Fold this sequence. Notes:
Layout: E1 3-12, E2 18-26, E3 31-36, E4 43-46, E5 50-54, E6 56-61, H1 77-89, H2 94-110, E7 113-120, H3 123-133, E8 136-143, H4 150-167, E9 175-177, E10 180-181, H5 189-202, E11 207-210, H6 214-224, H7 228-234, E12 243-246, H8 252-261, E13 264-267, H9 269-274, H10 282-288, E14 292-294, H11 307-322, H12 330-345, E15 360-364, H13 376-382, E16 389-394, E17 397-401, E18 404-405, H14 410-431
Parallel strand pairs: 1-4, 1-5, 6-7, 7-8, 8-9, 8-10, 11-12, 12-13, 13-14
Antiparallel strand pairs: 1-2, 2-3, 5-15, 15-16, 16-17, 17-18
Bound molecules: the ligand CSC[C@H]1O[C@@H](n2cnc3c(O)ncnc32)[C@H](O)[C@@H]1O and zinc ion (ZN).
Amino acid sequence: xxxxxxxxxxxxxxxxxxxxxxxxxxxxxxxxxxxxxxxxxxxxxxxxxxxxxxxxxxxxxxxxxxxxxxxxxxxxxxxxxxxxxxxxxxxxxxxxxxxxxxxxxxxxxxxxxxxxxxxxxxxxxxxxxxxxxxxxxxxxxxxxxxxxxxxxxxxxxxxxxxxxxxxxxxxxxxxxxxxxxxxxxxxxxxxxxxxxxxxxxxxxxxxxxxxxxxxxxxxxxxxxxxxxxxxxxxxxxxxxxxxxxxxxxxxxxxxxxxxxxxxxxxxxxxxxxxxxxxxxxxxxxxxxxxxxxxxxxxxxxxxxxxxxxxxxxxxxxxxxxxxxxxxxxxxxxxxxxxxxxxxxxxxxxxxxxxxxxxxxxxxxxxxxxxxxxxxxxxxxxxxxxxxxxxxxxxxxxxxxxxxxxxxxxxxxxxxxxxxxxxxxxxxxxxxx
Length: 432
Ligand SMILES: CSC[C@H]1O[C@@H](n2cnc3c(O)ncnc32)[C@H](O)[C@@H]1O
Ligand SMILES: [Zn+2]
């Protein structure tokens, strides 16, 4: 057996206490062996003066959208997608998505993200990039049927299903999959109802955008006489292990439904604020027992993939929504960004304890903005930045050491992304 020891740090344990401890990981099984005064490993990662936390989980992302970072800002979701994003996405070539996914992977890992949920196009190629970079991910082909005839719409669902079947369990289990219809308003309801059981047969969950804006809720209520998540339930889209993105405009009955069905929510506070989509009732979800994770959404609506940023936003905006400074407190957001996200994505990660997947992050505390230390949980929720991440470990393997990405050539990745982004926009704008 080959083991990695993360030595000399202070460790955040699942009960949200922080104690001095080493962590020993089995690199072959990718699992944590023990914590405390551990045996030495074949490889050591220095955590002296640092805080060792579970790897952050980005529960909803479109990693390749890093290519569209800063391309279109300051617009509401429907206008932004229709006028800016979808026209450019129509010009995407597979190599663009590969370059964007690589850039996303580099940014995620350097910011301490060890796992993500990712919905986009060219998924086998993008998943290979995420896996090679060392990430853990639940991926899926984003299915959109609006504007397509029946044959095209079915073909999109078939692609979503075959990609999910093909990729589930890839990269020694680091890649899992889901059937990922884009949303309840951009995908045909009859096909959703028809394909959901086929995803169940394939053993994969469903993931889709839901209740993101008020404009999305009203047409469903008008057409079906029920709220979107009740409609989703009627279509068979709310089963244990499924997870939705956003869940901003949800009422009490829908929150109860999410909790009863065991459906997770990827809360995306920055994207929800930037697109002025609304404020999700996160405290009410937590009170109801809904599993909540944190997502950045794509870099075009965020505009970065820093989950530390995101969990601070989640705490701040959660307090505003609840009109209560005690709401969505530090331990709640730290848990959501780690264990919550891992549970949402169905990974046995997000906690530092024997048996859990060895996905860990070492945060450097030797920074002015992290001084003094009264409460490290407070720092994690309100002061730590992605750039404070010193080491990132996924599956027992060191992927970032002393802020250097070991799995990708960062300079080459950013150069290629810059080149691809420019040519993509030129192509898209010349098609107009
Ligand atoms: C069909 S692949 C995913 C699809 O989703 C688009 N997208 C990015 N951000 C959002 C968002 O906040 N809500 C809805 N859809 C979003 C992305 O551009 C792709 O087209
Ligand atoms: Zn999204």
